[in-house]
Protein: Helix-turn-helix transcriptional regulator
Amino acid sequence: MYEKKIPENLECGISIAIKVLGGKWKAWIIDCINNGVLRPSEIHRRIDSASPRVINMQLKELEDYGIIGKTIYPGLPLKVEYYLTEVGKSILPVINAMDKWGNEKREFIVPGIEAMQPEHQY
Structure:
C-alpha cells in the first residue's frame, strides 16, 4: 500500500478546500449538479473533454467527502442521480467566485494558458 512521505496538513482550511476542489473537473461537476445535470451520462456529455473514468473517480471522491450524495433507483437499467448535500451547497459561493474571477481575468490568463499548449503538427 502506498504511503505519502509528507502527511497532508488537514489543519489548514486552504488545504482542505484544495483537497475537495483540487481535481481538474470537481468544481465543474459540482456546478453541473447544481444546474440540474444529475445523471452520470449527462455529466459525461457536459464535460466531454474528460474521460468517463476520471469523471467517475471525481464523483466518488466528492461523494466520499460528503459534497454530493447519490440516489439509486431500482430497475433495469439502473438509474443513478447525484445531488448536492448541505455541505455541497455551502461550497457554491466559492465556485461562483472562481467563475466570476475567471471571467473577469480571462483576457489576462488565457494568453498564458494558450502559450503553454503544445503546438499541433498536422
User: Anything to note?
Assistant: The mean pLDDT is 89. The helical segments are 13-21, 26-34, 40-46, 52-64, 86-90, 92-104, 106-116. The chain has one domain: 19-116. The CA atoms of residues 48 and 55 lie 10 Å apart.
